[in-house]
Amino acid sequence: METKEHNKQWHLIRNDNGEWISDDYAVFLTPLEATILRARAGQQGKELNIQHGANGLLWCYRHEYEAIIIEPTKKTVMRHELRVKKRIKEMNKEQICEMLCARIENKNLKLPKQIDFCIYDSVLYLQIEGSAVRDNMQTDGSAFEGWLICIKSYFPEIKNVELNWDLPLYSANTQVRQRQEKHYNRFLLRVIFFSRHYNWFIIHKSKIDTIRLFSKYHSNLLINYPANKDAKEVSGKGKINKGEAKLERFVMNKMRESIPVTDHQLPVGLFDDEVKSKRTCTPRGASQIDLWQIDRDVLRIFELKDEANNEVGIISELMFYANVMNEVNKGRIKYPQSIETATDYRNIQYLYRSVKDEKINSIEAVFLVYKLHPLIESNLDTILDIINDGMVTDAISFKKMLVTDIIGK
Hints:
By secondary structure, this protein is an alpha+beta fold. The protein contains 14 helices and 18 strands.
């Protein structure tokens, strides 16, 4: 896309008529999003002019975009839809939070501000802001699986859960926008995985086409594999990350004493058609399973957290990793052909041969922690029952283990 820098703060972009405008007035789109937006504009009878930039990049005017996506998905509209339904029970977000605080005896509990929750007619409704669906899945606003499972576990009267979300607005900065797009892709994939497992989970009718088109555009996913002997000593600058990196290696060495095929940092970045940077579908690099092992016919994966980390997002993370590895084991997500001759870094060849020879019969997903979030810890058995009930057909099971049971206190 042709641009001009202006005052080193913002850029001008050229529209299809050759006019220069500020990128503040533009929303950048992927081809999939442009297709969805055209369909929604047609359904609503609203104007939409898709503009074409260099390298196939698409964009539209911000005022057109907001006129199409914001009105149908705002919280007020969701609540209006609910008011017209006959309702037996009604509870808003504040009331839900108060009830949870009382049940776990913790007045400091807060629900994520980017998600609106409400209960009507024994249905839990979630509405996620567009800024959250483009965030990392472990952040509070994006981790919808963790929050809805926790809430459902404390309210047995909830029979169904319906999820809706605002479409994301992306940054004009190319690197930031590309990162946000990958997080949103992963969000959509998580929604697909969740809907496969739980018949009580409903995707809002306004997002059915979004999910359908996403599945069509990303129908041939490949997964990457380790390219070096050991993951970097520390990925990032945070103290928690440094502590977890050291803890991870210590736990791995302890595990190897009883189960030799134990390793760490298993990549789960996904790609469309070929494993190349330009074909990246979901976040890669730091997107890796902390610890994994093969114990006879069981693939066991671990999401490890140190003493300072006990967020609800651990449920969303581990569910995504378990689902991805299940798809790999079922052959629906594949390793690229190059893995046949790849160096056996981090036991990847053992894993690949086990998958190829159909030796893995089940997957165990383990929360490996010192402690869990109070909302999870206070109702862990029920939460695990809810998660595991939906995973039976794919032979995936979830459990909790304490780090101290492995390495001692």
